Amino acid sequence: MIKRIRSDQLRPGMYIHDLNCGWMDHPFVFNSFAVEDEEKIGKIIATGIRELYIDSSRGLDVEDAQTHDEFHAELHEKITALAASHEVRAHPTTLMEEVTVAKVVHQDAHKVVHHLMSDVRMGKQIEVAHMSPMVENITDSIFRNKDAFISLARIKKKDEYTFQHSVSVCALLVAFSQAMEYEKNVILEAGMGGLLHDIGKMKIPDYILNKPAPLTEDEFAIMRSHSAIGRELLEHTPGVPEAAIIITGQHHERYDGTGYPGKLKDQQISPLGQMASIVDVYDALTSNRIYHKGMEPTAALKKLFEWSRFHFNAKLVERFICLIGIYPVGTLVKLESGMLAVVVSPGHESLLRPTVRIVYDINKAQALTPHDFDLSSQLDSIVQYESPAQWGIDPYHYL
Ligand SMILES: [Fe+2]
Asked: How far, in Å, from the CA of 8 to the mean position of ligand 1?
């Protein structure tokens, strides 16, 4: 049985089913393994892992611990109640109208970031003036319809991860700052911070940055230095807004003080730093990497919600979940009627009732001519999200 325990309940003889900290945040070769000794437990606790999952059928048990299924049912209930209570705001432009423009802006942004990062790698100075128009174009697209750019930014080529992740984090931070009702100039500065937040990675040796296998402990420490390196680099670059420097330096800090480089806690981390940490983890979780298959957005939001008990500002995570929506555009969902459908636009009344494009009938095992259905009509509803890979359906094909 899979059970959720605190890391201080770990004992030699237990079997870890899931370290529960996201693949990017730990120096262990595997995510599941047998705990042989206290040394390993110390290492797990030192990494900042506060709760994890054990498999009681493969090792010692913690009898009164909550099971994975119980916990996830509870999590689902909480997150659904949160989404149901959220008031949905209409976009000034439809997804279809914005997607063509967003594609061009996305391609341009990718080129600019690629160029910028190559410059840094070669020791050249960053030209902030080249980036400002790009951040403005992304911000304008997000303001017209955030879902167009954000759904495009989810698709990443494996070998271009760092560039595309930067563009994604920029877009998500702009949307998040807008949802927080920040002034336009702060939103633009936050966007700039998103584009630059991982710039320090350009000073990390390539064999570590693109290693097609988990990092060793030493390599992991070098990789972790990227946020401090990035902050220093930007401090010496003319024209970089203070907000962008803060985002770069703080995006790996954690609310409980287990992050890096400063081990900052609570309000010691600036609001933009707290927001950047949420956005950075969300994009990393939902992206396909060299040896890691990305999670569906709904699953990633649940993880953020779970981790917000310790690692993030819980109020900000709630705001972020409502911003993205439990079933964002591009999510494959199963309907109560037994149909598979792709979310094509957020619900106008509730996040739980978007408009979907029905593509497959599960009962008849039959592909259908895609047709749209507005779930706010209450004639059908979403049961759960589904894995596109499991059904062999590419949701983006239907957008
Ligand atoms: Fe980073």
From this structure: 28
User: What residues does 366 pair with on adjacent strands?
Assistant: 361
The yes-or-no verdict on residue 25 having pLDDT over 70 is: no
Q: Which of 10-14, 118-122, 212-216, 322-326 has the lowest mean pLDDT?
A: 212-216
Tally of CA atoms within 13 A in the half-sphere of 47 that contains its CB: 23
CA of 135 to the centre of ligand 1 (A): 19
Torsions phi, psi for 106 (to 5 deg): -65, -45
Question: Ligand 1: distance of its center to the CA of 32 in Å?
Answer: 24
Q: Is the pTM of this model over 0.85?
A: yes
- CATH architecture assigned to 95-324: Orthogonal Bundle (1.10)
Cα 251 to ligand 1 centroid, rounded to whole Å: 6
- Is the distance from CB of 338 to CB of 363 less than 8 angstroms? yes
Distance 198 CA to ligand 1 centre (A): 5
Q: How many whole angstroms separate alpha carbon 238 and alpha carbon 152?
A: 31
Ligand 1 centroid to 248 CA: how many Å?
A: 8
CA of 172 to the centre of ligand 1 (A): 15
CA of 378 to the centre of ligand 1 (A): 42
Residue 75 C-alpha to ligand 1 middle, in angstroms?
27
HSE-up of residue 333 (Cα within 13 Å, Cβ side): 29
Question: Is pLDDT above 60 for 12?
Answer: yes
Centroid of ligand 1 to alpha carbon of 254 (angstroms): 13
176 CA distance to ligand 1 centroid (A)?
A: 18
Rounded mean pLDDT of 327-335?
Answer: 94
- The structural domains of the chain, with segments of one domain joined by +, span 2-64, 95-324, 332-398
pLDDT in tens, 338-387: 999 999 988 888 889 999 999 999 999 999 999 999 999 989 999 999 99
Who's near 44: CB < 8 A, 6+ residues apart? 7, 10, 16, 19, 28, 52
| pLDDT tens for each residue of 229-286 | 999 999 999 999 999 999 999 999 999 999 999 999 999 999 999 999 999 999 999 9
Between the CA of 333 and the centroid of ligand 1 the distance, in Å, is: 31
Q: How far apart are the first and last CA of the chain?
A: 39
Kindly tell me if the per-residue pLDDT of 177 is higher than 90.
Answer: yes
For the record, the structure tokens of 235 come out as: 């401090």
Q: What's the 122 CA to ligand 1 centre distance in angstroms? A: 20
